[in-house]
Amino acid sequence: MNNRERSLSGEAVRLEGIVKRFSGVTANAGIDLSLNYGEVHGLLGENGAGKTVLMSVLYGLYRPTEGQIYLKDRPVAISSPAVAIRAGIGMVHQHFMLVPRLTVADNMVVGWETLWGPFLDRSRIRRRIGELSEQYGLEVDPSARVEELSVGEQQRVEIVKALYRGAEVLILDEPTATLPEQEVESFFATIRALRDEGKAVVFITHKLREALTICDRVTVLRKGEKVGTVPASQATESQLAEMMVGREVVFEVQRERVASEGQPLLRVEGLTAVDDRGVPAVQEVGFTVHDHEIVGVAGVQGNGQSELVEAICGLSRLRQGQVMVDGEDLSGAPPRKMAQAGLVHIPEDRHRRGLILDFSVGENSILGRQYESPFAIGQVGQSKRAIAGYARELVERFNIVVPGVRTPARALSGGNQQRVILARELDRKPKVIVAAQPTRGLDVAGIEFVWEQLLAMRREGAAILLVSMDLDELLTLADRLVVMYQGKLVGERKPGETDKQEIGLLMLGGAVETA
Amino acid sequence: MKLLKELGIIVVSVALGLGVGAIITAATGYSVPAVFRELVRGAFSDMYRVAQTLTQATPILFTSLSFLIAFRAGLFNIGAEGQLFLGGFFAAWAGFTLSLPPVLHIVVCLFFGAAAGAVWGFIPGWLRARRGANEFVTTMMLSYVAIYLTSWLVSPGGPYHGHQWANQTARILSTAELPRMITGTQLSWGIVVGGLVALLLWYFLFRMPRGYELRAVGQNPLAAEYGGVDVAPTQILAMVLAGALAGLGGASEILGTHRRFIEGFSPGYGWDGIAGGLIARAHPIGAVFAALLMGALRAGGSAIDRAGVAPSDLAAVFQGLVILFVVAPELIRYLKRVRRRRRVHGRPEP
Fold it and tell me: Which range, A208-222, A290-304, B28-42, B59-73, is most confident?
């Protein structure tokens, strides 16, 4: 808001030995960190590594249990966000802190400038927003109401707000998590502009590729401790992943080729299905998945993949077509019959379909087998002991981190929730696995786990249909790829004989051909 | 630990309800100490009064169980009052029409009551599961149908008008009477039946595969479907059970307390069941305690009126406030969840 003269070079912030404990849990265990002006500093770590807590300490939301913060070499105590803002530190949270009903201009000053005088100088506010927008390529309309703006626009407003309030150190907490894919590039351009203007930018993320793309230096945290700081130009994805997880992470998958065209275990023919509004979403889709084979379904979200999966798995009505599991015609059979025939389903939405969040881990571990022995004793009893024992076995075998099998599934992290689902479904020794976006929202260790499990099932002979929005995942795992566009299959490729550009083109309906 | 916390919340809520009641009492010019003395005395002071509390608690226990079994399946049974009346009438009918040996006669009458209630639960259950009709509305409407139907049956023009000047049926045979637990009071063995049914319901919900499926449907119908549960039949089953339980409550009240069907015999036990089920946090064992609380409030409330320290309206205010304070947070939480869920899932598939 004013143009304080600052020397925007050298070290902006130094954190020394920051410790933060919450009633016994140590979120930060003695972290040192140095942020320079004119630098994008990546803060990388898995969920729960302590990234956000550390930055909340810097922003005055938490007082550190131990440790000292230095601003331009001067020790400071940041007791509240107001103090942080006055000191030139701004933070954009994952969940935006904007007043939806107010205009962009009014959001700049709300809770900040209103006590400054009896009247607001709205034209001055607008002028300043205009300047900032132009300087950093942050396009915002000062008179638009925040509730009318898209997520990307709201994020720009948050950044402008921080700059408006004089931020020279800008903390961005997982800024790309809510951003649509196509807006990420222009967002990165903004960050670069900020850096070039001499701002110190902290970029919190758990995405390796992003950290390497946008950051100058990357600091990796693991379980509340600092693993190290490396220049991004000298780091590789696998090195960072290893630092994050604490051991080597296998991204390159060893896939032993299968000699013969095996048995067709899942055969779909002429499948037509509608979405919940009754609009045709899948038209005349047909394909075959053999044993020891992963067939990937690529496509932009909303091109009929979800409806295809639900129709195959008996969760929605089949308009037309056939679904054959290991030679048996199961078109339109209910889920229980599908499961008995050896088809299991990893649903795309684990909260809506995959789990009953208020049920315990034990109760969730038998969902779909509740009527089977030994969990059920005839029709009249349920063996709590058998359920708990089975759940404990799964927890151990699949390395699920839970306080106990009586814990509600709601209390688990996303990665562990997905492990519960995977453990439950894969333990049924399926012939066919329909996995819909099985790694969505997971961190590195979670993704690696899912991949390993799917590949292990493939090794054992399962036929796997893998639907994913992540092209890298499909290219890594699939033996064959089919591309879905507007409810139809528009192409089939082998990963070794294609690239992302070609698949991307097919996904957008660029080159239609018959499979 | 969790149980203690829940209990603590309930105690505080009851205290808050009584506190606000005290303020209203004082503001309207009545004596707060006198009202409280009568409230407690009316519910607990001697054997007769305790029996009165238990007598009032019995039908509330059944209707609480009725409400909570539907609630566990994600459904709202607002029509327990009508199911109670219908069950009461058919139990009475079997009581004065059939002639059977003593214990068997009671069992058959209870069965008639439960079956009549079950039919009255099946209709809204089927409409909800197969046609998507909101059970909140249908149970309520059918409730009035049952109340006025039974009222007509025992009115002077109706087929079962069995008394010179009162709208009631003939007396049931002595073989069909649920015996009194304590002579000189109205307390019958119905409360023991209620306790046993609560235990059975607990076993069903938490120790049987069908109960597991029912709870799964209530918590997340999409996940239940994914887990191989037939959602629509399970919803119908829950409503049938809900109706049967309320019908059983009516039967026990007729066979144990009144010994004949009387028009308007329930002062709103069906409605109390909604509060009772929610106070119990939809737990069958908790429903026993919730019903006792509600019974005590009813017994104490009528004592305030009888002792003349305050009009009966004030007693109703007390009951209403306590229920409001105990139930409101849970109800708000639940309605939020239902609204969110129905928005996500839309109408169930036909």
Answer: B59-73
Q: Is the CB of residue A38 less than 8 Å from the CB of residue A200?
A: yes
Distance, in Å, from the CA atom of B213 to the CA atom of A158, rounded to the nearest integer, reads 46
Task: Report the CATH number that the domain containing residue B27 is assigned in CATH.
Answer: 1.10.3470
The candidate with the shortest Cα–Cα distance to B252, out of B211, B203, B198, B303, is B198
Cα(B332)–Cα(B216) distance, integer angstroms: 21
Asked, colleague to colleague, whether A38-59+80-245 and A250-342+430-515 share their fold, the answer is yes
pTM of the model: 0.75
Chain B residues within an 8 Å CB radius of A335: 225-228
Tell whether B200 lies on the interface with A, counting CB pairs under 8 A.
no
Residues spanned by the domain of B30: 2-325
Give the highest mean pLDDT range of A263-272, B120-129, B170-179: B120-129
The reply to whether B244 falls in a domain is yes
Tell me the CATH architecture of domain A38-59+80-245: 3-Layer(aba) Sandwich (3.40)
More confident residue, A177 or A156: A156
Please, is A413 exposed, middle or buried when counting C-beta atoms within 10 Å of its C-beta (0-12, 13-18, 19+)?
Answer: middle
Residue B335 lies in a domain: no
- B290-317 pLDDT, tens digit per residue, is 999 889 888 888 888 888 888 878 878 8
Q: Distance (Å, rounded) from C-alpha B3 to C-alpha B261?
A: 40
Phi, psi of A293 (to 5 degrees): -140, 140
Are the C-beta atoms of B110 and B253 separated by less than 8 Å?
no
Q: What is the ipTM of this complex?
A: 0.84
CA distance A450 to chain B (A): 20
Least confident of A154-158, A349-353, A376-380, B11-15: B11-15
Cα–Cα distance for residue pair A61/A84, rounded to 1 Å:
9
Most A-contacting residue of B212, B219, B237, B333 (CB-CB within 10 A), to test interface = B212
> Selecting from 3.40.50.300, 1.10.1200.10, 3.30.1370.110, 3.60.15.10, what CATH number does the domain A250-342+430-515 have?
3.40.50.300
Residue B30 lies in a domain: yes
A and B: number of Cβ contacts within 8 A? 68
Q: How far does Cα A165 stand from its chain's mean position?
A: 31
What six digits make up the tokens of B151?
Answer: 């009222």
Shortest alpha-carbon distance between residue B201 and chain A (Å): 12
Calculate what percentage of chain A has a pLDDT beyond 90. Answer: 44
Listed residue (B125, B103, B101) closest to B243, CA to CA? B125
Which one, of B229, B270, B210, B298, lies nearest residue B76 by Cα?
B270
Structural domain total, chain B: 1
* Peptide bond just before B159 cis, omega within 30 deg: no
For chain A, what are the domain ranges?
A: 38-59+80-245, 250-342+430-515, 354-428
- Render pLDDT for A335-354 as a digit per residue (tens, 0 to 9): 999 999 999 999 988 888 99
